[in-house]
Amino acid sequence: xxxxxxxxxxxxxxxxxxxxxxxxxxxxxxxxxxxxxxxxxxxxxxxxxxxxxxxxxxxxxxxxxxxxxxxxxxxxxxxxxxxxxxxxxxxxxxxxxxxxxxxxxxxxxxxxxxxxxxxxxxxxxxxxxxxxxxxxxxxxxxxxxxxxxxxxxxxxxxxxxxxxxxxxxxxxxxxxxxxxxxxxxxxxxxxxxxxxxxxxxxxxxxxxxxxxxxxxxxxxxxxxx
Length: 225
Ligand code: 5RP
Known about the structure:
The chain is of the alpha/beta class. It has 2 domains: about 5-130 and about 205-220, Rossmann fold; about 135-200, 2-Layer Sandwich (Alpha-Beta Plaits). The protein has 6 helices and 13 strands. The strands form 3 sheets. The protein has a 6-stranded mixed beta sheet with strand order 2-1-3-6-12-13, with helices on both faces. A 4-stranded antiparallel beta sheet has the order 8-9-7-10, sandwiched between helices. About 45% of the residues are buried. The chain binds ribulose-5-phosphate (5RP). Ribulose-5-phosphate (5RP) binds near residues 35 and 104.
């Protein structure tokens, strides 16, 4: 029986195999945040002479990449990336995701938007029939915290401030429980449209291109539509 850590490692290894054909002197790889992304970063160090650099979705990942001697580029210097690799808190079979358990959702969404492909790496426990058991992280400008919480309550959510946490962008996170997510794309647009919301952790309007989900019997590939 493989542990969750071993499953995460398998998913990270599968992503390293996936990106290999894209490597070259001009290649920039987008890198996510979290414990699974950390394993991907550790493995990426073996390719460090075969790429131009990386773009990180958080200060935490940037520091880990730098420790491995992997160049970390400013997104403003990068026009395109073939692949962005990141974990998820939940993913459904349509490859819509909830992300932001690590609080890096906004930069994750930005870096992913510049990449041609989003490869989601996770152990199979992250695959769900319907998103929403995991409270939805929403990055909010501090002064709007209560106003946004009230609007989220109108949508059926119970927002809790993530205490002792400030995002890399200087904002707060509301973790929103109780939302009924029947239409992830619509809910993403609705929440993102609330004044004071920087972005919500639904990645549905633009989901993953491919999920590499580690199971006890190997890595399952779920392609996007
Ligand atoms: C960070 C994220 C992570 O991808 C998500 O929380 C999954 O993390 P882990 O790989 O540690 O389970 O969205 O903001």
